[in-house]
Predict the 3D structure of the following.
Amino acid sequence: MRAANKFTVLTLVVTFATITATCAFAINPQPEPPGVIKKGKMLSPVARKEISSQPTPTRVLKGMTANQFNSLAPSTLLVVGGKKVPKSEIVKALDKSRAAAAARSRGESRKFAAELQKRSSQLQAQQRKAVMAGNIAVKAKFASFHAVSANNATTLASALSVPQIIEVHAQDNIIQPGSWVAIKGINFGSTHGKVNLVGSFPGGSVPLTIQQWYSDAIMVEVPTIEGAPDQTATLQVLASGDRKSTSQVQFIAEHVINSVPVPLLTVTACSQNASFHNDCNLDSWVFCHHQNLPDSVVTSGIDRFTVKTLKNGWKAVSFFPQDNSKCVLSGNAITCSWTTYHDFNFYYTLVYAEGPRGVPMQ
């Protein structure tokens, strides 16, 4: 009986001591030893970011090369004009500038076509004016040919029956489309024959239009001829009975102005002086773009192009337009100098050549 009572008392004492220790720890918790992983809810993403975030790197753009710029991460902050701008935004601005320049050059095609037509029309008008002025002089010369020959009956009577060209008169001694040609000679006969221009013409020869025919003088007109180059040709008079006489003459075709095809152009040197982008492109015409990184110093350079040797009487004569560039044409060489404005420069130009209508440049 006494042993049972002792066990009960001991149990109550141990229980009371455990409760007392638990309450004391709850009231005064003890720090955990180092290295112990604390269990509980995880830190919020905001808290983790505040603890582990690293500062975004900042670089100064001024003086930076294109390679250095391209090696940077898109999120890199760059100091531009005293402001911090992400590299990704600068790239967008640079791309937008190049795209705008390319779009503008494409939009110039109609202007190029109109300017080309204008210049060609002006050239043809000048040629027609010169031909008309020359025809007046040729007509007067023809009258003198016939008058002198008609009064020289002795010479005509003693001549053989074979036709003979004595003199050919044309304005500036050049035969060209639309011009009149006076031919002085003997034994042409009173019956109209034929006068042909023989040479490198479509079909080998071109019949000339007879205006007046006498036994001692003939007046002819050169029709429109397309597809024949400038050349030394043969003027052939065919009298009745297949009698003929010939004379060498200089033929100059009607000239027009056309653009030089891109395959006939070559980029000789494209300046690399701009700090970010340099490009000389031959697409539909010459198109060049030079671009600096923002905050770069003003740059300048020289681009060079070559027109391949043109054939069949064609010759490079000019170009249009000259946006922000100073281009010079010397023979078959084109030199364009440029200077950047607002961090970039772009220009485009169409090379013009003058030559005979309907004849290829190559």
